[in-house]
Every structure is written in structure tokens, then in C-alpha cells.
Design goal:
The complex is a heterodimer.
Chain A (H helix, E strand, L loop, with lengths): L2 H14 L1 H7 L6 H6 L4 H31 L6 H7 L10 H23 L1 H13 L7 H21 L29 H30 L12 H32 L10 E2 L2 E2 L7 H35 L6 H15 L14 H13 L1 H15 L8 H24 L1 H7 L3 H31 L5 H27 L13 H4 L2 H31 L41 E3 L2 E3 L14
Antiparallel strand pairs in A: 1-2, 3-4
Helix pairs in contact in A: 1-2, 4-6, 4-7, 4-8, 4-20, 6-7, 7-9, 7-10, 8-9, 9-10, 10-11, 10-12, 11-12, 11-15, 11-17, 12-14, 14-15, 15-17, 15-18, 17-18, 18-20
Chain B lengths: L1 H5 L7 H28 L12 H24 L3 H31 L8 H31 L10 H26 L2
Helix pairs in contact in B: 2-5, 2-6, 3-4, 3-6, 4-5, 5-6
Amino acid sequence: MSNEATLHSQQEVMHGAHDHHDHEHHHEDSFISKYVFSMDHKMIAKQFLITGIVWAIIGAFFSVLFRLQLGFPDATFPWLESILGHWAKGGRITAEAYYALVTMHGTILVFFVLTAGLSGTFSNLLIPLQVGARDMASPFMNCLSYWFFFLASLVMMASLFVQTGPASGGWTMYPPLSALGDASIGSKIGVDLWLTSMALFVVSQLLGGLNYISTLLNMRTKGMAMTKMPLTIWSFFFTAVLGVLSFPVLLSGFILLLMDRHAGTSFYLSDIFIAGKALANEGGSAILYQHLFWFLGHPEVYIIILPAMGMVSEVLAVSSRKPIFGYLAMIGSLFAICILAFLVWAHHMFVTGLNPFLGAFFVLLTLLIAVPSAIKVFNWITTIWKGNINFTPASLFSIGFVSTFISGGLTGIWLGNSSIDIHLHDTMFVIAHFHIVMGVSAFFGMFAGIYHWFPKMYGRFMNNTIGYIHFWVTLVGAYLIFWPMHYEGMAGMPRRYYDVSGWASFKQFGGLNEFITIVVILVFAVQLLFVFNFFYSIFKGRKLTTQNPWKATTLEWTTPIHAGHGNWPGEIPEVYRWAYDYSKDGRDFIPQTEPIGPNESAH
Amino acid sequence: MDTMTLEQRKKIHPHKYSLWIAMGSITMMFIGFTSAYIVKRSQANWLAFELPHIFWVSTAVILTSSLTIHLALKQFRERNMQRYKQLITLTAFLGVVFAACQWIGFSQLKSVGLPLNGPVSASFIYVIVGVHMLHVLGGVIALLIMFGRAYRTRVRTYSAVPIEVAATYWHFVDILWIYLLVFLSIAR
């Protein structure tokens, strides 16, 4: 059965099933059920994406604001006072506002954008489409998942506007600073709202994760064995497993923190003095929170990066017209990363007084992650090696991902060594490391995904020229921003500090900090250009005329251009081969729905 | 919608599958609590004490309720709807009794000078037992919804999936409690 034949038969089935189909969906016409409380996974994906974009703009704008303080600590910007009020008296961001901005930047980007906005969008969009299911295992739970995320967003947004400001003890919310309202102005109701919002967020992630796992394990179409699934689906699977196993532990840490704040317990508090007055709390341990937090916190890093890895694998294979190199090794390394993710959390705690003997094991396990990561990098490079590459914005961002993943990953080897970490801990080196390997890379994966699957989402293309500008400015800008931070960090410049110009040893970086801030503003402007491109293309982009614009093998491109709820108008296509039959037997690509020929060997 | 779900290939009902993953997730949460407990216990100033005796009563109650929901499932499969309704009501009632017993346990702890904001070892009991109690009450709410459904006359349900899901969850919180009780008794 050729692709054309498949399409043809689908057309027939669609006509045949027409009144049946209408009958099923007569209740889906209202605006509310189609666009607001939608149960269609494709609409929920778009909801996650657009909410994520809104949060990304806010979170990135915060970084522009605090970079202004870091780059120009002595300058005043009167316009800041008009938007931030007394938080920027005289046009200079106050110390409290600076900490609040840093905290919210981290929280928003890590959780609301790169967790919910990334895996929320693409797991929802691609799991049913690529495994061949009508919808998620439980569309209702999926809808709830988005609306819990939305509620979490509202609460977090509200915390920005309370009088004492949002939580400002750092995105990790370490006690005792976060456990005692009297500790600082940013530890008051802001932290309560933060904890409430995060609890709602965890619920959202669990509802989503349950659905992703049970959908892709149970509802695959006929012939779609696990080893025929595209790597995107494998990566969403491991992401969901990580989330489902680690978010509950974070929640238990938050519950104990909430009890310490309001019920007078002493889980994390002991021998604390505030303003010269001793508190009654006794017997608690602040380090306990760090253990609970980082048991989630480290898998969280992989929750962010695995979906990006999956999408990059898919985009690179499609755009270089070559099968993915080492498919099984890719799955194996995803699995290895998933297991190791749970065994390395204490490498965030080398300087907390952790037993050095114990630290040695965490060093070893941390460095082991380099093995699966290197396997993946090798496979991506060999996939595009001698490929016939179409340099679409999606493929450029995928190649950019490989680049930033390598350069950010290498510094992880430094930080993973406990002895070097003692010097580098809490310096700008750490900022540079995780922003490149996790922040920029995950964003590149996300951009690749958006450019690649935009036609599937909206039936139109995004503008390529703006896409190229977006890519080159972002790639060059990201390196210009974060590369110099390595040097600052090696010289000992601390992160999180409001103003380092008072130290003679860090004063030398004054010019460098100004430079970084200027690049940050430029890169932020280009991201706004991307957002413009995104929304403009939804309504005015070049229309899609074929079902399969990228000539890809996977199932999502066998659905109609504007697929309704249920995805395939007729029967769900059957799958006969793996997802990466590109340039095989003299053919450019062979869709998964085509049976293996008599003279053909299966992969 | 029926044709839509029927043509999907699936081994276990997706809702049951989701439940199993959710149970894994809840287990992880309690592993978080109990491992925090172990870490704290090995540090200084740990105060050991006897658990309230009423926790053994509540154990008996929740074990009985596991039996009643098992019977309810059996009755549902045999379409003895009257017996089924009685049994899930009884189960929900036992769930409430269990929660009440735990609550009495809390007041007993308080009366022997171990309030929530007292020693950390006592605070842990309140939080761990309290969060477990919330999970039992969640199960009670699910049973009340099913009770309401059983009385609907306009739409009748013949699918045993909802009651199977509820029963599995109920056994799960039961086993979870046994684990917590054993854990809290041994690791004092």
C-alpha cells in the first residue's frame, strides 16, 4: 500500500463515516468546549504552549531587569520606577526586588516554561498522534491537567502583586529563609503562594504524566511495537516516568515546609535567632529539605532535557534524510539517564557538609552520566554525517542543540567533581553551566519542535526568514552571554549577589557584565520577534497544502491537515515498520504505514 | 464514542493502568516522608514514644473495609445491586470510622504532651498519618460518587471498571497503612 493509496482509502472512509462522525461530535461545537475546556489533546497541547510562551516572556523579561542591575550597578533607569514602583526607587532595582526577580525567573523558567510548556505541549500533541491513538487514555484528566497548571499559574501570577512581593529565597526555596515569615520580606505570603502554586503544579504534572504513560503503553495502534516508536515517544515516556516518581517526593518536602511555616513544627528548623531573639524550634535539619528537594530537583533537569533530546533526534533524522544512527543505543541511553537521574541528587550538596566518602559515590555516579550523554551526542552527529540536510529553522535549532549540549555538558564534568565543585560552587560558573546545558539546549529543542510541528498544529508554516534571524542571533547571543560567565566563575565571582562591584577582584568584570547585559537585551528582542512570528503565522502564515510537508515517516503526518477530535477520520492506520526508513532502497522515505515488501528486510 | 474506544488496541483498561501508576506515585510520596523520617531519626534529639493504641483499632477497621469492598465488587459482578449498594455504603462508613480513629489517635498523642509542634518525632506521626488519612478520605469521596451512580435510574452502568478501580485503590491505601504502621512501630 503506497502513501497515496492510504490517503485515498482514508478519504473514502471519511466520506463513509461522515454522518457517524458528525453524530459523535455534535456536542463539540460550542466555543467553550472547543477552545477552553477542550478534551482534545491537540487543543490542550496548544493551551500548554501558549501559556508557556506567556510565562517565557515574563520570565525572560525578569532576567533582563536583573541583568540591568548586574551590568550597570550604578546607573539609574527612571522607567524602571514607573513599572516597578517602590521596588525600583529612583530607577535602581532594590536588593529585595533583585532577589524576587532572580527567584521568579528560576521558578518560571524551570517549572512553568521548560516543564509544563515543553513536555506539556509536545507530549500532548505527539503521543496520540505518533502512536496512533484517538486521544489520551483519559481526556478528562488531561483537561484537568491543563487547568491545574492554569490555576498554578494564576496563583504564581498573583504572588507577583502582593504587597510584600513574591517569594525571593531562590527557586530552590531553601529553609530556614523560606520557613520563617520574619526572615525576610520575601519570605512572607509570597512563599505561601509559591508553595500553593507549586502544589497545584505537581498535581497538574502527575495527572499529565499518568496519562502519557498509560496512553503510550496501552493505546498504540496495531503493529506499533515499542521498538517501532519514534524516539520522541521514548523520550516523553522516560520524562513522564521521572515526573511521576519524583514530583511526589517534592510535594512531601513542601508539605513539611508548610507545616514548619504554619503549624509550628521543627522539621527543618533548629537553633534559629531572628533579630537577636531565639526561636523555640529545636531538632530540625535544613539539609533534610535539600535532600527531598534535590531528589526531585535532579530528575527535573532531565524532565526538561529529555523531551528536547527526543524531538531533536526526530528532527535531525527527518531533515538529514537519514535513519537515526543507533536507535537502540538512543533508547538505552535515555533509560540509563533516567535511572542515573535518581542516584545523583547529592552532587548539588557537596558543600553542605556531606560526608566526603559518600560524596565520592555521588561523584562517580554523576560522571557516569557522561557515558549515555556522549552516546547520544555521537549518534546525533553520525545521523547528520554525510546527510542531505535541509537547513530548515527546525534542523538548525536541532544542530544548535547538539552544540550547546556538548559545550554545556563538558563543564558538568568539572562541577561533578566534588573537589573542583568546592571552588566553583555558587559562582557564575554554575550559572553558565546549567544555562547552556539545560536552559539554552532545552529552548533549542523546544524551538526545533515548534518550527517542525507548527504545520501540524495550525495548518500553516512559520516564516522562515524570521526563523533564520531568530536562530543565528539566539545561538551567537547565547554563547556571548554565557561563555564569559565561565571566566567570572573561575575567578570566584558569586552568583545571586546583588552587586559585586564592591570587590576589587570582581571589579575587573565590570565591562564584561555590561557587555553580557547588552547581549541579553538583544537576544530578548529576538525572542519577541519569534513570538510575533508564531502568532502572526497562526493567522497569516503560508498555508499547508500537503499532509506531509517534511516528507516524514511518522503517523502524525497521515492525519488530515486540520485533524478533528479523534485524529483520523477513518480507521487508525496500521504500522508495519520503524519510524526511520529514510533513503532506503533508493526511496527518499517510506511511511510507517507501508507494509514491508517481499524483497525488503525490516530494520 | 463507543466505537471510538472499542477500536483502540489495549491490554488493560487505561484507567486501571493510570491507577497503578498513580499508586506508584503515591508510594513515592510516602517513601519521601519515611526516608526523611529515617534521616531525622539518626540525628540528635530524637524522642522515642509509644504509638497510640487506637491505631490498632483503626487497622482492624481498615482491614474489614478491604473485605467489604471486595465483597461489593463480587456482588456488582453478580448484579446484586441491593447488596452492592449496602456494601459500598458500609465500606465508605468504615473509611470514615478509620479517619475518626486516627483523629482520636492525634488527640491521645496531644494529651500525653506530644502536640504537632512538639518533638519532631511526633510531628512526623501527625504529617504521615494525616496525609494517609486524606488519601483514605479521597477514596470515601470516590465511593460516595459511585453510590450516587448506583441510584441513577436514567443511565445504568454495567461496566465493572469504576468499582474495580475503586477497590484496587482501597486495598492500596489499606496496604499503605499496614506498611506505615509497621514502619512507625519498628523505626521509633
